[in-house]
Amino acid sequence: MKAALQEFINYMSEVKKASANTIMSYQNDLIKLIRYLNSLNITETGKINETSLNSYILNMEREGMSPATVSRNIASIKAFVLYMIKKGIIQEDPSERMRAPKVEKKAPHTLTTDQVNDLLNQPDTDTLKGIRDKAMLELLYATGIRVSELIAIKIEDIHLKGKFIRCCNGNKERMIPFGTMAKQALEKYLKQTRGELLGAIETNYCFTNLSGEPMSRQGFWKIIKGYGRSAGIQDDITPQVLRNSFAVHMMENGADLKSLQEFMGHSDISTTQLYMQNRTRKITEVYAQSHPRANLEL
């Protein structure tokens, strides 16, 4: 079954041109499925049936997995099964009647502009690490890109003179502008720090760790969480929170939904519309505080 999974992963990567993030999610989800099926003595892909799949989903729910996690796993299973049917390994679809649980779409968690400023001011730009961290944080907030896109940026993707980056996510490509502060932070990093971090190592990746190897997702998560604590921000800080903050702050300052969708790289505009919940809540608060008759009763 592991061989079938590897074939599927190769297909998603080479034929479907799925993003590295999507492929990683599929792989992680399906490895857990295979481990569970093995515990039921189901070791051949052709022996997967509706009962075993439903049993796996029920087991996830008993373990307290969120509806969003269960829903994502079901999507991974359906994609894998569809590929197996296409290859003739499975004749009938055992996942056909699987239905994803309803997922409540909550307003994205964001920071205030003051909190963002505090966060971005945390790196010590008198050190190599601080100069690199400042450049990464400034670029992330200036562009709203995903963390997977941030660590995948190569030197040739950065256009300092024009103040934009070329961002590739799978087979999709978009150009995203950035402002003067991000440009200055990038210039300082590229001129003063990157070469020192690389040493004798050669790589096209823009951001590296202190050993000169490409920055990892986990490595950057630790960096941003550390600066969140030092800034005194009580909320949990992740790269996604800074991405959310970019989107909401853009909308608050007049960005239209369609442009924001292009900046964020969303294939479906309904994903972008989630950020309007924050905007609607703020407008309601402003109205309640500002209109002379907002809180009066007859």
Automatic annotation (TrEMBL):
It is found in: Cytoplasm. GO terms for biological process: cell division; chromosome segregation; DNA transposition. InterPro entries: CB, DNA_brk_join_enz, Integrase-like_cat_sf, Integrase_catalytic, Integrase_recombinase_N, Integrase_SAM-like_N, Tyrosine_recombinase_XerC/XerD, Tyrosine_recombinase_XerCD. One of its GO terms (cellular component) is cytoplasm. Site-specific tyrosine recombinase, which acts by catalyzing the cutting and rejoining of the recombining DNA molecules. The XerC-XerD complex is essential to convert dimers of the bacterial chromosome into monomers to permit their segregation at cell division. It also contributes to the segregational stability of plasmids. NCBIfam families: PRK00283.1. Belongs to the 'phage' integrase family. XerC subfamily. This is Tyrosine recombinase XerC. It comes from Anaerocolumna cellulosilytica. The lineage of its organism: Bacteria, Bacillati, Bacillota, Clostridia, Lachnospirales.
